[in-house]
């Protein structure tokens, strides 16, 4: 139990190599003692480490083993937690139907077993899917509910994540003031908790909002801070998103060669880790660069790539915006 707790602490603060090493040592001890329940917990934690490293197949392998153990033990609360993690891996791979099914079962099990933390986490993750599908008003209402529940649990990081996600929904609605207010509140909370990946995500979302408002001078250092954290924590999808936003920064500066290289890095990483939503966003923003560069045919090609992926994912708001970009070239 001590080794497992140490490994989970390393995971929280994104020391992934140390977390994996410690958890694997804990697993050897649990297996030698025949501790089935402890083994299920460690398998789940190892799956979370692999998820944080973007190693989806290894993550799912360990999480599915944990799921089987919890089902065999008829442990509804433990099963709800691991289904939540499985849903997150499927979401990162842009497999949204599978993700929603896992979150929905997790929510039902958490409610039946009185696991309030998993209830609110499942609600938060279902709201993220609503945001992707273009149901921002419903998502914002659900995020507000999550904030109240996390505050009741005194979970600072949970409040910060829900407030950040609410800000992203406001940004999708182009309600910039509300979005920035959420980002500032989320950053204040995340700093208290010390969760590095969350802090990086807030930096990056602030940067994207600033770029929408035409302020690339402040957006650039925010991107750089996020990228530094993502590299330190080996968060390859975060790194991909940072490259995309830096590509937008250099587009504004009309440094075309650098911008194009950054977009290519973002597309390549998103493809490698099967993150189709990130890939589509990078195509969309590279298309904008090509239009600014007065090469509209290349811009149209990228927009069409983005539109196809957004359509496949059911990302209605994103698809509508890209359709408008294509129509503007006519």
Please write out the topology.
Blueprint: H1 2-12, H2 16-33, H3 36-52, H4 56-73, H5 76-92, H6 96-113, H7 116-132, H8 136-152, H9 156-172, H10 176-193, H11 196-212, H12 216-233, H13 236-252, H14 256-272, H15 276-292, H16 296-313, H17 316-327
Characterization of the model:
The chain is an all-alpha fold and 330 residues long. It is built from 17 helices and no strands. Helix 3 packs antiparallel against helix 4 (56-73) and helix 13 (236-252) packs antiparallel against helix 14 (256-272).
Short account of what is shown:
This protein has 330 residues and is an all-alpha fold. The chain has 17 helices and no strands.
The gyration radius over C-alpha positions equals 20 Å
How many H/I helices? 17
Mean pLDDT: 92
Helix share of residues? over 70%
Low-confidence stretches: none
Structural class: mainly alpha
Oligomer state of the chains in this structure: single chain
Termini Cα gap: 63 Å
Number of DSSP E strands: 0
Name the overall outline: globular
> How would you spell out the order of helices and strands?
HHHHHHHHHHHHHHHHH
**Major sheet description:** none
Q: Which percent band covers the strand fraction?
A: under 5%
State the main characteristics:
single chain, 330 residues
């Amino acid at each position: 139990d001590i080794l497992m707790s140490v490994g989970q602490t390393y995971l929280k603060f994104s020391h992934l190599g140390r977390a994996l090493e410690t958890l694997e040592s804990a697993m050897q001890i649990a297996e030698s003692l025949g501790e089935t329940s402890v083994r299920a917990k460690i398998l789940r934690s190892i799956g979370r480490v692999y998820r944080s490293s973007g190693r989806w197949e290894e993550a799912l392998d360990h999480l599915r083993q944990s799921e089987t153990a919890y089902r065999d033990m008829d442990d509804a609360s433990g099963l709800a937690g691991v289904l939540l993690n499985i849903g997150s891996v499927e979401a990162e791979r842009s497999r949204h139907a599978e993700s929603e099914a896992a979150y929905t079962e997790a929510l039902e099990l958490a409610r039946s077993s009185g696991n309030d933390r998993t209830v609110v986490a499942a609600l938060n993750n279902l709201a993220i899917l609503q945001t992707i599908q273009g149901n921002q008003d419903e998502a914002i209402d659900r995020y507000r509910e999550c904030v109240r529940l996390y505050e009741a649990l005194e979970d600072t990081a949970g409040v910060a994540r829900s407030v950040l996600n609410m800000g992203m929904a406001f940004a999708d609605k182009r309600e910039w003031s509300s979005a920035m207010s959420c980002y500032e509140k989320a950053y204040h909370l995340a700093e208290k908790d010390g969760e590095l990946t969350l802090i990086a995500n807030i930096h990056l979302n602030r940067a994207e909002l600033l770029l929408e408002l035409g302020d690339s001078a402040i957006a650039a250092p925010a991107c750089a801070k996020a990228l530094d954290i993502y590299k330190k924590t080996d968060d390859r999808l975060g790194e991909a998103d940072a490259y995309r936003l830096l590509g937008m920064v250099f587009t504004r500066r009309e440094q075309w060669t650098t911008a194009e290289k950054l977009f290519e890095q973002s597309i390549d990483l998103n493809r490698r880790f099967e993150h189709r939503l990130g890939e589509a966003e990078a195509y969309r923003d590279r298309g904008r660069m090509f239009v600014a560069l007065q090469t509209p045919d290349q811009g149209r090609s990228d927009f069409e790539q983005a539109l196809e992926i957004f359509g496949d994912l059911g990302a209605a708001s994103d698809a509508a915006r890209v359709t408008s970009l294509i129509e503007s070239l006519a």
